[in-house]
Amino acid sequence: MKRSGHLWNYAENVIDYIPENMRVMIEEVERIEDLPEEMTDEEICLEAIELGCTLKEVPEQCRTKDVCLEAVKKNGFALEYAPVKTLELCIEAVKQCKHATMFVPEDLKDKL
Question: Rounded to an integer, what distance in angstroms lies between the CA atom of residue 38 and that of residue 41?
Answer without folding.
Answer: 7
